[in-house]
Specification:
The chain is of the alpha+beta class. It has a single domain, classed as 2-Layer Sandwich (Heat Shock Protein 90), CATH 3.30.565. The protein is 28% helix and 38% strand. The strands form two sheets. The chain has a four-stranded antiparallel β-sheet, with helices on one face. Strands 3-4 form a two-stranded antiparallel sheet.
Length: 96
């Protein structure tokens, strides 16, 4: 679970850097129960990520969100007045 969580956080941070409007982001990690860990990245962009993969020549974009969807048991966004949090939940043993 730790390796998957670290890869998800890395992808969410990359997405926030590419799409966020300000230079700062916030990483949140919480343990919602004995088996569930939730990781999230907060940025100031209101743009919601999608699972669609866009290809620009040899450089696929949004592939990180596809990876997040494949590794996480659940993921989504929580809108804020000034931005959003993109979060993912992992369960020990998989499947929430």
């Amino acid at each position: 679970m730790i390796d998957d969580a670290m890869l998800i956080i890395t992808e969410l941070i990359g997405h926030a850097i590419d799409h966020g409007r300000f230079s700062s982001i916030r990483v949140i990690v919480s343990k919602n129960s004995e088996q569930v860990v939730r990781v999230g990245v907060v940025d100031r962009s209101k743009a919601v990520p999608t699972r669609a993969v866009k290809c620009d020549g040899d450089h696929p974009q949004e592939l990180g969100i596809v990876l997040v969807g494949a590794l996480a048991d659940r993921w989504g966004t929580e809108p804020y007045r000034w931005g959003k949090q993109v979060w993912a939940e992992l369960r020990e043993g998989g499947t929430l």
